[in-house]
Design brief:
Layout: H1 3-12, H2 16-19, H3 30-44, H4 53-82, E1 89-94, H5 96-105, E2 107-111, E3 123-128, E4 134-149, E5 152-159, E6 164-171, E7 184-186, H6 188-193
Length: about 200
């Protein structure tokens, strides 16, 4: 076997990952194309002609994709330091059958939430309607799963801990039950220190 010939043939073979590439359209100005071609020409002098437009573009995309998560992380860190939030919990309405569902499945579903506020939420608090009409339980949140119900974006809330009964349930008081039908953003400390539902409004 001619080892030199084998070596030359191997240089012509394309790695498997290269074969799986898909073609995409990329629109550049004429000026950008000329700059790119000039860069290819300059590099080709020292690379035996192995540099082309695609290689440089792919290198730039790889660098971009690596940078994006870092930029997002820095942005979130910077904004979380500046922004002061006055909530760490969501207060949701339920009934006794809903509580049985939560105890069995360890999640509560189809909650309409502000996606910008999710990262600050640590607890989910439950108001139990008639015959109790009280805020009675809370649990630590494990994660959120986005879902769509009737073309509306909602969330399934997974629990990290079992339901915990409040030492002192918060009564509805003289408020109409209408106030307890929608979710509210609050803090667990406020809930634990409240006497009536109106203390959280």
């Amino acid at each position: 076997m001619n080892d030199h010939l084998v070596s030359n043939i191997k240089t012509l073979l394309v790695p498997k990952k290269e074969l799986n590439k898909k073609q995409v359209a990329l629109f550049l100005t004429q000026e950008k194309i000329e700059e790119l071609d000039q860069a290819v020409k300059s590099l080709s002098v020292y690379s035996n002609g192995k540099v082309n437009r695609n290689i440089l573009i792919e290198m730039a995309i790889d660098d971009l994709l690596e940078s994006i998560p870092k930029v997002i992380k820095e942005y979130e860190d910077d904004n979380s330091n500046v922004e002061e939030v006055n909530y760490d919990s969501i207060l949701v309405p339920s009934n006794t059958s809903g509580i049985d569902f939560i105890k069995k499945n360890k999640f509560w579903e189809y909650v309409k939430l502000d996606s910008e506020k999710i990262r600050y939420l640590k607890y989910i608090v439950f108001y139990i309607n008639a015959p109790f009409s009280q805020i009675m339980y809370y649990a630590e949140i494990k994660s959120f799963e986005q879902c769509f119900v009737d073309n509306q974006k909602k969330y399934r809330v997974y629990l990290k801990s079992p339901l915990i009964a409040l030492d002192k349930p918060v009564v509805l008081g003289d408020l109409s039950s209408v106030y307890a039908r929608s979710i509210r953003y609050t803090t667990l400390d406020k809930v634990k220190n409240a006497k009536e539902y109106k203390d959280l409004i």
